[in-house]
Each structure stands twice: as C-alpha cells, then as structure tokens.
Amino acid sequence: MSTDLQPYAAHDSDTRGRRYPDPPHPYRAEFQRDRDRIIHSTAFRRLVYKTQVFVNHEGDHYRTRLTHSLEVAQIGRTVARCLGLNEHLVEAICLAHDLGHTPFGHAGQDVLNDCMQPYGGFEHNLQSLRVVDELEDKYAGFAGLNLTFETREGILKHCSKHNARQLADVGERFLERHQPSCEAQLANLADEIAYNNHDVDDGLRAGLLTEGELCAVDLFRDHYETLHRTGNEISRRAMIHETVRAMVNEVVTDLIDTSRATLADASPADIEAVRTAPQPLIGQGSAVRVRHRELKKFLHASLYRHERVLAMTRKAATIVSGLFECYMNDVHAMPKAHAGRAVEWSGELGDAGKARAVTDYVAGMTDRYAYSAYGRLVDSTVDTDLTR
Ligand code: MG
C-alpha cells in the first residue's frame, strides 16, 4: 500500500500559492496549514448545530454537518493514502466542503436561492468559498483564511458559468471545462459515499425507512442477506451497522481499484495533466456506480421526500425566508458588523449589495440560532419543534 506521493498528486512545493503573501511555516506543510485553519475557523464550529437531513433536536445520534464532514474526511484520507494522493489536501477540502451550508440543510439553501433570485442567486459551494475567502475574520493582514489555490479549487466543486466569470483563478476551470486535482475529485466522491450510506443509517434510526424497504436496493440487500445467512444472533443496531459498513467498504474499495487502474492507464505526468485530462481520473467502476446510484434514487424517493422530512422543510422555509425579509427591511436588526456591511455594499451595489450582506448573515446561522432570531424578530409564537 503506497503512502508516497505520486507525480500526479498535489505537491505542497508546487502549490499555486495563496492570495496574500504568507511565509512558509517552519514545520507544517502548506495543505496541512489549510486543514488547521479550517478546523480553527468559526464556520467549522458552527457545523455542529447545522442539519444534515434530520434537525438537531430530533435526537442526539443523528449526523450533523460536523460529523458528516468528519466522515467525509475519513473516507477521503483512506483513499488518498491508497492512491498516493496528498492526504492533507483531501482532508482540508473534505472538512471545508460544507462550510457555506445554510441552516436546515437543503431546505434552507433552496429558500435562500429563491430569495436571492433577483440578485444573482445563492449557491452553497460558492458560499463555502466565500466563507474561507472573505467572511472568516481571523487575521490581521487579510480577510478570510488565505488558503492555497488547491484547497479553494476543491471547495468550489460546482459553479454556474455566470459566477465563474466573476471569480478569477478558481472559476477558470468551469469556463475551460478542465478537471480539478485528483484530491478535489476524490473529496467530491467521498462526500457522496458518506451521505448516501449514512443517510441509510439515520433513516433507519428515525423510523422513516425499514430494512424491508431497503431490500429493494441491491447494494443494501446483498450485504444484509449475507449477514443474515451467517445465522449469528446479533442486535438490530449491530445488523444495521454491519450492513452499512459493508456497503461503504464495497463502494470505497471499488473507488480505489477503479481509480488506480485509470491512473495507471492515463499516467498523468503531473497535476496539470490531471487538470487537462478529458475525463476525471478518480471515479467508480460502472457496476458499482449503478448500484450506488440505485441507492441514491431510493433515498430521494423514500427519505428526502418523506412526509416528516417535507414538513420540516416547509417550516424551515418559513423561518429562512422570514428572516431574509426582516433583515432586508431593517438591516440594523442584524449585528453591527453585518449591518455595516449591508450599508456599505448597498451604497456600492444597491439592493443587490444589501441582499448579499443579509444572505451572508442568514447563511452563517446555525439551526437553533435561526429559530431564536425568528422567534425574537418575526413571530414569537413560532413552533420551534420542527418535528411536529
Ligand atoms: Mg456534504
């Protein structure tokens, strides 16, 4: 098992660098510093109170954005090691990938995007980049965390052409149809593997899915039945865990084997060759891709569209759009720094500037902070139990 960096990996010594000059650290490598800066950021700490699928107070055992990000990083690091990729860079991207997520998961994001339609919309990937580039207030010499190009490239996994044109360096690949680094490709897949498989576990725990229903999905059924055939007496919880564990293992092992073969075939000379390759070089084999996609489709139909999840979505939408409207009507209802930015940006850009400042503030909120702000400013009779 190789732990040496391959030529096509991101090498710290070849980074395209940071936006502001920053002398090298005596004993920490560049991507390691990025990882450390992300862990020490305020936005990272907030992830613990942001919803993945289930709202925080439904129970203490569900994934939050924080535990999800840690699981993504864990999968990413394992694969990076096997493929000789830069583990620090993969970890940095994985830990940062959800920093721009709004309160209440996808529900919050969709509503903010609706509210922002007249002003250029809202994309959570772009917001994650905004968090690390602009919004974190930590350093004397610059705004943001001043991360390397490679970490920022990986954080921006999707971007509309319109927005890509506004961004310099990290936007270019969306216009030129280039690939990101192998590390960024891997982080993206690690995210998908983590949430698909762990949503099975959370969905079962919440009683929104049953093992019987999940047996319609090959990836679940094959491992579940294999475990049953052993005839061992195991608890339901252990049975579920063992099944999910085997599912993750199948998908990750395939990702390693397939990517290794693709890389050997293409043998890119360096990271630039990875970027200009016609196709991504990190990916799943076609058989496992079909099995994994079947699971994803099932979760879309059965879990994300479950009445209880939809009920939560509707309440979340009311809260997020109510807050947006409230701060648009009175920017001084926001804390001073945010209100100041709203005034300054509306001077430059009119309502679009004001709306951007309001969105930065609302997007940064945790679920519980958003409830309490809504209760205080908009509707004190709000039922803050999203599960009812
Ligand atoms: Mg994610």
Provide tags for this entry.
binds magnesium ion, Hypothetical protein af1432, 2 domains, globular, 388 residues
Describe the protein.
- 62% of the residues lie in helices and 0% in strands.
- It is mainly alpha-helical.
- It has two domains: 30-307, Hypothetical protein af1432, CATH 1.10.3210.10; 309-377, no CATH class.
- The longest helix has 31 residues, at 236-266.
- The chain binds magnesium ion.
What is the fold-level CATH name, i.e. the topology of the largest domain? Hypothetical protein af1432
* CA(first)-CA(last) distance: 50 Å
CATH classification class of the largest domain: Mainly Alpha
**Main sheet summary:** none
Write out the distinct hetero groups bound to the structure: magnesium ion
The CATH level-2 architecture of the largest domain is identified as Orthogonal Bundle
Fourth-level CATH superfamily of the largest domain: Hypothetical protein af1432
* Count of folded domains: 2
Secondary structure topology:
Blueprint: H1 30-39, H2 42-46, H3 65-83, H4 87-96, H5 105-115, H6 124-135, H7 149-155, H8 161-166, H9 172-176, H10 182-205, H11 211-214, H12 218-229, H13 236-266, H14 271-276, H15 286-302, H16 307-329, H17 336-349, H18 351-364, H19 367-377
Helix pairs in contact: 1-4, 3-4, 3-10, 3-13, 4-7, 4-10, 5-16, 7-10, 10-13, 10-15, 12-13, 16-18, 16-19, 17-18
The structure holds magnesium ion.
The site of magnesium ion has 5 residues, from α10.
